[in-house]
Amino acid sequence: MVNRVALVTGGGSGIGREICLSLAIAGNKVVAADLNKTGADETVEMINAAGGIACPITMDVADTNSVADGVFQAVDEFGPIEILVNCAGWDDLMPFLDTDEDFWDKIIDINFKGVLRTVHHCLPSMIENGFGRVVNIGSDAGRVGSSLEAVYSGAKGGIIAFTKTIAREMARNGITANVVCPGPTATPLLDGIVAASDNGDKVIGAMARAVPMKRVGQPQEVASGVSYFCSEDAGFVTGQTLSVSGGLTMS
């Protein structure tokens, strides 16, 4: 992989952090963007310690101005964004009938519109330069549905369809767009969801039992799929959805 500029949202922890590390190891300059400044700083420290090049920026993907400012900062630091990975996300487990419109808006604003915002801000320079890699983190919940995650599943399903459309529109501009869908994965987000549940151990156990490999995934395993889509080797691969879920989804 050549030395390109990569922006990763949600880069301050979990899957996003591992994606940042993986892209940096491959030789890219990485911008770790996160609402949690401390987390982004820690990711960058890890990359620098490993001999990579990175910088942190504070970004709230639910705020258009924050996204615009963050992209400007990234470009000012390293140059135009050539690789965009959207990993920022949020969810809370509850039956759909227990949710309300404020909850719907928060889920959609972060998980779906957050992707729209970053892609909308990064595509113009990719078109101008004739190169781009867009990788959006979906979820197997968006492919098969997931109990207690109705709105989240819908938002992630929207990301899959949106990414395919971007892949079609951008194909002649040297830009690819793909989706990586994790299954249940050991992340701080999952830990927080489980901790808030009255039956956390049962929730994790049920998730693991639903996976043919009988375990939850690790962030590094998701990052490997993302790194492939970001690579020069994936130049003829676009509009694809890859599940990294131990066989939870097979298609």
Structure, described:
This protein is α/β, with parallel strands linked by helices and 251 residues long. The protein has one domain: Rossmann fold. The chain is built from 10 helices and 7 strands. A 7-stranded parallel beta sheet has the order 3-2-1-4-5-6-7, sandwiched between helices. The radius of gyration is 17 Å and the shape is globular. The mean pLDDT is 94.
E-strand count: 7
Strand proportion, as a percent range, falls in: 15-25%
Question: What's the alpha carbon Rg, rounded to whole Å?
Answer: 17 Å
- CATH level 1 name: Alpha Beta
Number of helices: 10
Strand order of the largest sheet: 3-2-1-4-5-6-7
What is the arithmetic mean of pLDDT?
94
Structural class: alpha/beta
Could you say how many structural domains there are in total? 1
Instruction: Tell me the name of the CATH homologous superfamily.
Output: NAD(P)-binding Rossmann-like Domain
* Straight-line N-to-C gap: 29 Å
Kindly identify the CATH topology. Rossmann fold
Instruction: Sum up the overall morphology in one term.
Output: globular
**Which percent bin holds the helix content?**
40-55%
Q: List unreliable stretches of 5+ residues.
A: none
CATH arch. level architecture: 3-Layer(aba) Sandwich
Major β-sheet profile: 7 strands, parallel
Q: What's the order of the H and E elements?
A: EHEHEHEHHEHHEHHHE
